[in-house]
Fold these 2 entries.
Entry 1:
Amino acid sequence: MKKVVDQFTVVSTIPYNSTNYCITLKSHSPLEKIEAGQFTNVEIPGNKEVFLRRPFSVFEVDYKSNTLSILVKILGKGSKTLTEIRPGEILSLIYPLGKGFTLPKNNEKIMAVGGGSGVAPVLHLARNSGLPVDNVQVILGARSSGDHIPVDHYNQWANCHYTTDDGSKGIHGVVTNHPLFNNLNEFDRIYACGPLPMMKAVAAQAKKANVTCEVSLENLMACGFGVCLCCIEPTTKGNLCVCTEGPVFNINDLKW
Ligand SMILES: Cc1cc2nc3c(=O)[nH]c(=O)nc-3n(C[C@H](O)[C@H](O)[C@H](O)COP(=O)(O)OP(=O)(O)OC[C@H]3O[C@@H](n4cnc5c(N)ncnc54)[C@H](O)[C@@H]3O)c2cc1C
Ligand code: FES
């Protein structure tokens, strides 16, 4: 798959809540094909303290308007600077990077679990799975109701369920407390992206139920295309670069 470095114009920067922003960007050339789970490495403009690009999953893609969106959770200087960018400004993106999720086959039933910034690739997958709505269950986990992003329109592609650590929206507790985890054998595939403990908990349950499971890792990255070796993950196939061999891995390949 061809990777490109492209200058995108910022179309909008929309705050979804106090820490999460949706940034929509327009390319002036036709977009490359982007798989759910692939990411883009974004140059951070106007902040001399941030030298390296920052990786973000591609959230939504519209090939007709040549736009893509990323969901940015403010963590440090790079992400904060990005959320302050205004319409009309230019951002340099390298994309599409990495390997995406394996798409389900016809009529399979899938569960996609997202937490924190991991909701972006999971929702991208749910929207583009090609499956009927009833075959797609999405569980989104957050600390509190205010940390969930507004994704009600995703109900046209998936059944969305929520969990919160404080019980303020959906099921009280972590994602694996959701009742859907009581019958994992109903699913052909499980996908997850989010904080490491969350993905490990989902992977452990999937393994127990013997259901195929893929997770998207968010190891620290610099180059994003296999040169700096800072994103190495020990796997059953040796030490692999998450940016080129992942970020999506089958859990059987991970040493968890
Ligand atoms: C493949 C991939 C996809 C990603 N997709 C998204 C996305 O869709 N939305 C989103 O908001 N974020 C995403 N991230 C995480 C995002 O890249 C980081 O939050 C961002 O680089 C932080 O940059 P910063 O300058 O704001 O923070 P920094 O100043 O670089 O870091 C602030 C703190 O956060 C920690 N940190 C930085 N990056 C990560 C990370 N990846 N995991 C855990 N801790 C980290 C640092 O160690 C430090 O303690 C993704 C990361 C990867 C590797
Ligand atoms: S980020 Fe440089 S090799 Fe993966």
Entry 2:
Amino acid sequence: MTSPTSGGDREKLTSKLPASLRHTLKIRAAQLSTDVQDAVSDGITAWRIHSEPLPTVDTAGAESFGTWLPEGLYDEFKQDCATRGVSYIQGLAQSVALWLEQNPTAEESASTRRILVCNQKGGVGKTAVTAGLAQALAEEPRPAQGDAEDTVGLARAAARSGLRVLMVDYDPQGHLSHQLGLRAIPAGSESLITHMLNREQAQTPLMDLTVVIEDKRFGDRLRILPAAFDAFLLDSGLTMFRGPRHAALERALASLEPHFDVIVLDAPPSLGLAMDAAIYYGRRRDGEKPGTSGLVIPVEAEDTSAQAYGMLINQVHSLATDYDIDVDQLGLVVNKYDSRRGYIATSSLDKWKSLGTPPVLAVIGDLKEQREAVRLQRPLLAYAPESDQAHNMREIARRLT
Ligand SMILES: Nc1ncnc2c1ncn2[C@@H]1O[C@H](COP(=O)(O)OP(=O)(O)O)[C@@H](O)[C@H]1O
Ligand SMILES: [Mg+2]
């Protein structure tokens, strides 16, 4: 590795890399719409904060390789290589290998479902559905109807396992985090937003920022990535973002996907660039079965909800056209339904049902357990596991699996 020469706010790195790694790196970066220099910078940053020893990469016959790093990173990397007693070539090879591992192709991570709970209207139940659905998916399996009647059925129930589920609190208001007893990450501290907008400054792997929701019924399968106060600045940050802004969320969450079967995202009540990045993240990936990932839309049985739904769908359609993607609407949840409100409520419900696509996954009443669980900052399925609301959430989970 030769000395760096200055190149604006970047420095030239000249080293060697095995041809196969270099080839895979180029292809993967193109697949993820990332520059090779950003991929290498991210890999080196991840390598520097990686606490476990990494496997040695065979660098015999490595060929010359050059790229540009953010100013200062080269010196820090050199120091770390010396401290760890590895050559720069080995350090670079490990960094690139680590980046490839943490940034799988869409096909490799196709098994992680992405569910976006969204509606720009506030108060319709996005947060309630995100939390309930995630808990129902992660919950220790319960015998299905009929299972308990024979030993084969019981064995079948035991063999099913709850899923590894991540809730992402993507709403700057942080209601989801708060309801589960967590504070939003304070302004200026590292968060999902850092990993989206300033990846090279990130010091902590995103997985380390996730928090386990402790309850025996979830094992250690249910986690949350708490909200960040800085999310208020996400839309303006994305306006100035120099990379592919629509893929900013996907790139940030890629390293988490190998750890989870499902990622459920509590979307903000807005239709800005942050939401575009979320919709893009929920698109149907190459090779993914239709209806696996996509949008779950809580609505109410009233006219303003229908208008809001129309606006959301317009945005989804224009994004789908711009990026030539498919975004599946997995279903609607008609929430806080009260037929005693009369004709407006009943006729609105009929309209939602008559859409057919997306299907109505559940019709949920105005239920006290939902509000109580929120007030007590307890997961609904732990607080009132046999309540109608808990069963509604299990029904939504069942309809989606
Ligand atoms: N089915 C329900 N029954 C009773 N209260 C509900 C129900 N769904 C949501 N709520 C309450 O309504 C309020 C708004 O719901 P929330 O999920 O925060 O909406 P959003 O995330 O769309 O703004 C919260 O206080 C929540 O506890
Ligand atoms: Mg909310």
